[in-house]
Design a protein that fits this description.
By secondary structure, the protein is of the alpha/beta class. The protein has a domain at 40-125: Methylesterase CheB, C-terminal domain (Rossmann fold). 34% of the residues lie in helices and 17% in strands. The chain is built from four helices and five strands, in the order E-E-H-E-H-E-H-E-H. It has helices spanning 41-53, 70-78, 94-102, 114-125, and strands at 21-25, 28-32, 58-61, 82-86, 107-109. The chain has a three-stranded parallel beta sheet with strand order 3-4-5. The chain is globular and about 35 Å long. It starts with 20 loop residues before the first strand and ends with a helix.
Length: 127
């Protein structure tokens, strides 16, 4: 779980704390708790990730309700990053399906294949 002022490191997966928004400033996390507004939690983080990391940003949309992550995928793509969405194996398909329909997803994979693709992508990007 990401925490305030924790340094963002390559080859790590971070989880947003409950009832919080997560931003990246100067390669460190900024946790805003309680959440600051009505914006979607994943979108808030992905927009910040795209702006902070540019072509090195990688966003992954997994199982979940609503359309959270779709707008964020657009921002990641506009900043040259890469995006993933879980395929139809997602227990709740709303979030990954919305992201896929947006046209801003590079890879649609079953959950178990995402880590391998991430590893090869990170190697290609020299992350």
């Amino acid at each position: 779980v990401a925490s305030m002022a924790m340094q963002v490191l390559a080859n790590h997966v971070y989880v947003i704390p409950p009832d919080s928004d997560l931003l990246i400033e100067n390669y460190r996390f900024k946790v805003i708790s309680p959440r600051s507004g009505r914006n979607k939690q994943i979108d808030v983080f992905f927009v910040s990730l795209a702006e902070a990391m540019g072509v090195r940003a990688i966003g992954i949309v997994l199982s979940g309700y609503d359309v959270d992550g779709t707008k964020g995928c657009q921002h990641i793509k506009e900043h040259g990053g890469k995006t993933f969405a879980q395929d139809t194996s997602a227990e709740v398909e709303f979030m990954p399906r919305s992201a896929q329909a947006s046209g801003y997803v590079d890879f649609v994979l079953p959950l178990q294949k995402i880590p391998g693709k991430l590893k090869s992508l990170a190697a290609a990007l020299k992350i």
